[in-house]
Design goal:
The chain is α/β, with parallel strands linked by helices. The chain has 15 helices and 14 strands. The longest helix has 16 residues. The structure holds N-(iminomethyl)-L-glutamic acid and zinc ion. The site of zinc ion has 5 residues, from loops. Catalyzes the hydrolytic cleavage of the carbon-nitrogen bond in imidazolone-5-propanoate to yield N-formimidoyl-L-glutamate. It is the third step in the universal histidine degradation pathway. It catalyses: 4-imidazolone-5-propanoate + H2O = N-formimidoyl-L-glutamate.
Amino acid sequence: MSMLITGIKELVTGDPEVEGAITDPLHAGLGVLRDAAIVIGGGGEDSAPTVQWVGHAAAAPAADWAIDLEGRSVVPGFVDSHSHLVFAGDRSAEFAARMSGTPYDGGGIATTVEATRSASDPELRTLLQHRVQEMRAQGTTTVEVKSGYGLTVEDEVRALRLAREVTTEVTYLGAHVVPPDRRDAAGRAAYLDLVCGEMLEACAPHARWIDVFCEPASPHAFDGEESRRVLEAGRAAGLELRVHGNQLSEGPGVQLAVELGAASVDHCTFLSDADVEALAGSGTVATLLPGVEFSTRQPYPDARRLIGAGAQVAIATDCNPGTCYSSSMPLMIALAVREMGMTPAEALRAATAGGAAALRRTDVGRIAVGLRADFALVDAPSWLHIPYRVGVPVVRALEV
Ligand SMILES: N=CN[C@@H](CCC(=O)O)C(=O)O
Ligand SMILES: [Zn+2]
């Protein structure tokens, strides 16, 4: 069975080469078709429908069924390549303190670890499912989910098992922080042994990725050498690499990520010229998390400097209880445009194809023949309404 989706005022394909795409600078890199249609087909119990045809509505082939979007717009489903959705507890008071000047240093993570360990599986599952639904309701169709609020073998495995119920993009983050009861030198060394040994062995079968919070400026996180050890152990266990780097200060995270061939280094708030240069010539995506800067009152990363140098950029929510409790990719797009100087087209691309690159995925982030039918519906005549109508729920995942 095939279905024709027609009445699309603007269709963002993400393929700049698509025939008939608008060529002006406002739409650069997006492959936008006006008055467009899509035909999807296939799919069944175990597989999603795929795109069979994309083009101007006037040239659309017949299909078994048709739906008319009556002048709304369609974009690729957002790819949120960085989130920490498996947690319990509340840290709103920490947010309030930051708004009146208390700096973020990662110390609050311990509060979430305690609450998460105390929650039952059904409680955590319900919280996780609710957050994923919240994301879909705002246009996100692919999400990466990290562990990192368990910090024992059992609790990290549990977080990964739960994450695997909602996504294939599961990340082992035992190296989020050193647990508070292990902060002396011996305890720290023993925790690192655990993260790279028994905990890794138990977690690797449940994850695709390994991540580390590389931040020498935080007493809770890991320095360059510790991070290298974590990443190399993860790689030896068959995991692919991603890094939290350069969030609170210039540091070794970016260089390490590039050197080890990580798919992405995330935050990139404080970068040296050498960091920018390294990213520009690399296969490592710079993932920017503007909601973190919003919620921690930090300066925003310099997206123009990265884009100008030729680095590949993604944006993601980092949805977590500490630095950014927002699941909204539309808000991240708006912040990227308003606060980081990205054009609307660059921001939308970073939230779709950029996120896909950060997850090394070629099957999402674009709308093209042969790819999964993975779309978000914009209740407006133009995709530009995503940042333009900031705070208004104009975009949601399109269920087909
Ligand atoms: N910086 C490290 N981890 C998270 C924050 C976690 C938390 O504060 O609970 C982040 O990406 O910002
Ligand atoms: Zn994070």
